[in-house]
Fold:
Amino acid sequence: MNIKALIIDDEQAPIELLKWLIKQYCPEIDRVESARSAEEAINLLSSYSPDLVFLDIQMPRYNGFDFLEKIATWNFEIIFTTAFNEFAIQAIRLSALDYLLKPIDDNELKRAVQRFIAKRSTVVTDPEMYKNFIENLSQPNKGKFKLAISDSKTIRYVPIEEIIRLEADGNYTYIYKTGPKSYYSAKTLKEYDELLLGSRFLRVHRSHLINIDHIVSYDKQGLISMTDGSVVEVSRRKRDFVQETLKS
Structure:
């Protein structure tokens, strides 16, 4: 498989390191170009058509978000590269996008490229996912983020503050939100638990993940009433933890 890549980073050293890692560990990528700014990258796209773009989020003047906003259409996938920024990373993950944490690890790079290859053969990322990511980053806090929820046909973007609870159904998940609609997702409840870590969600049972802000009551029998009228059972081993969490 011949893959063309583009690295966008304002610093030359990370560019050279990533080029070296790609040469050593990613033989599927046979051509790599680079740009030191969003402006340079946009100009380069007029003569070079990459399949995969490694995009640094934090650049002076025009950053990675500006690059996304200035491109009308694209036929490539993006892997974001960033130094540790918990806010940005959660925005990326909730938008169902991929990233590499700097300094880039060779094993993480290989896994990211393999995910790209697997995904490339089946689906092209919806540009709306990148727009959702930009919108997430513009929010004042994580509670305003939108979660990308995908089923076999569509992707929906739901504010996480509107999600009441999530319920496991084997390797799938039911997602209940305010209003009449609920969604069925191909992700497991464990995946959503990890995605929503740091938000106001609490895993109260192996089958239930709930939004604390939608709790109506919690009784001594370990039953939680939610704003949608549902009653969620708290597992015995989690009852003390849940009670302490709700007190704080």
Summary: The helical segments are 12-25, 38-44, 64-70, 86-94, 106-120, 127-137, 189-195, 239-247. The two ends are 53 Å apart (CA to CA). The first helix runs from residue 12 to 25. The chain has a mean pLDDT of 89.
